[in-house]
Design a protein that fits this description.
Blueprint (H helix, E strand, L loop, with lengths): L7 E2 L5 E4 L5 H10 L1 H4 L13 H16 L4 E7 L2 E12 L5 E8 L8 H16 L4 E6 L4 H9 L3 E12 L2 E11 L3
Parallel strand pairs: 5-6
Antiparallel strand pairs: 1-2, 2-3, 3-4, 4-5, 6-8, 7-8
Helix pairs in contact: 1-3
Length: 183
């Protein structure tokens, strides 16, 4: 069962909408433009990642997961350019009713509350449309900006996971956060 998402306008005229295969070039351009900005927070990327072909393959994978009801890949669009992305992934049903959330912003769009606005929209969708009970997110200990977005969005710190993800070429600890969506 594919997950639907109605596009919505965020502050500053940014539009949050479903990712499509037509976003491949825009995402490649955005990732290339933000390569240095995102490098400390991302896995090591191949050169193909920064191409339209590489992004097209990633988008197809994410859309297949969306069609199966286990992911919701979104982009933030500023006019004709990609300003960032936010994804729900690893959606688990049954007794868990949970998902993970991750996001990134173009360096020229940081510090304006855009990540918080996008995250609020995704939290509402997860709770109201998908009926999820819990969202989880992780941030590197040095990524104070991302942690601040999570706290402002009602996430609570639940601990530190040692060697959680391979980021910037090495296994790194992450601070874990959760938000319970229903009382």
């Amino acid at each position: 069962m594919a997950i639907d998402f109605a596009a919505r306008e965020l502050p500053g005229g940014i539009v949050l909408r479903l990712r499509t295969e037509d976003d491949a070039q825009g995402l490649a351009d955005a990732f290339a433009r933000n390569r240095g900005h995102l490098a400390p927070w991302d896995p090591t990327r191949t050169e193909e990642f920064y191409t339209a072909e590489g992004q097209h393959a990633r988008i197809r994978e994410k859309l297949e997961l969306r069609d199966r009801g286990v992911a919701l890949p979104l982009v933030l669009v500023d006019g004709d350019s990609i300003a960032g992305a936010i994804d729900l992934s690893d959606i688990v049903r049954g007794a868990f009713q949970s998902a993970s959330v991750g996001y990134w912003l173009d360096r020229d769009h940081t510090g304006r509350g855009l990540a918080s606005s996008a995250l609020a929209a995704v939290v509402g969708t997860a709770r109201d449309d998908l009926g999820l009970h819990r969202l989880q997110a992780a941030a590197l200990p040095a990524n104070h900006a991302s942690q601040a977005v999570l706290v402002r969005s009602g996430f609570e710190r639940i601990g530190v996971a040692a060697d959680y993800l391979r980021i910037a070429g090495r296994w790194q600890d992450h601070v874990l956060f959760q938000r319970i969506l229903h009382d």
